Amino acid sequence: MVDNPTELNLLCASISDAEHDIWLWNNLKPSMEERVVLAAMSRHVNLLTLIFRREVDGRPAVAEDGNWQDHAREFVTLLDRAKSIRGSTVGEHLDELAVRLTARVAPAGVGDESEAGIPSHGFQTGRSSRVDEFINKMARAGHHISRTDIWTVAGHTDATQFQRWQREDPRSTDGDNSKFNRVLSYTEERFMKELNSAKASRSRHQ
């Protein structure tokens, strides 16, 4: 198991974002072959969520959930397969999760990123590190949030602008920088208030 509580919280946040990208992928009219792979990928992600949440909450492991490293290996293999079918991935959170899991899984399966088919380019820009720090700050206050929650509070309906800003893409605007920096400066209470308000507003318009 992942021993560092900080890393565990980041993994939980990354898994939550990956679940959102799987949902997006399923809504882009994937082929039947893609759907089968995505369904299997979703099962492993759901089990990783259960395993890591139990660890965060200090609850005992459940044998039926299996070994988290086995689920991590299967997820990486399935993601690679899904990308080969489609020709690309959907969003960036799935690759982010693959990189995080690969960095922590035992060498038995996916210890080497190049062998696992995972992009070796880094996601940890200065901005990405600030996001990780904010997620950890919220976790220490008892609020387990994800990157999706951050761009939702910033007023976006998808992750595109946030992902560009986070990796310091030239297409990211000064307005994006201002919005995301403002959100990352929020207190824990202010962020949760804004997040709940954003979710309520979205529910009313669905």
Reconstruct the topology from this structure.
Blueprint: H1 5-26, H2 32-57, H3 68-86, H4 93-104, H5 113-116, H6 126-140, H7 147-153, H8 160-166, H9 174-184, H10 188-204
Helix pairs in contact: 1-2, 1-4, 1-6, 2-3, 3-4, 7-10
What does this structure look like?
The protein has 206 residues and is an all-alpha fold. It folds into 2 domains: 5-116; 126-204. The protein has helices at residues 5-26, 32-57, 68-86, 93-104, 113-116, 126-140, 147-153, 160-166, 174-184, 188-204. It is globular. The protein starts with a helix and ends with a helix. The model is unreliable at 108-124 (pLDDT under 50).
Percent of residues in beta strands: under 5%
Give the CA-based shape: globular
Domain count: the total is 2
The beta-strand count equals: 0
The SSE order reads HHHHHHHHHH
Helix content: 55-70%
| Major sheet details | none
Overall pLDDT metric: 83
Summarize this entry quickly.
It contains 10 helices and no strands. The chain is mainly α and 206 residues long.
What would the keywords be for this entry?
2 domains; mainly alpha; globular; 206 residues
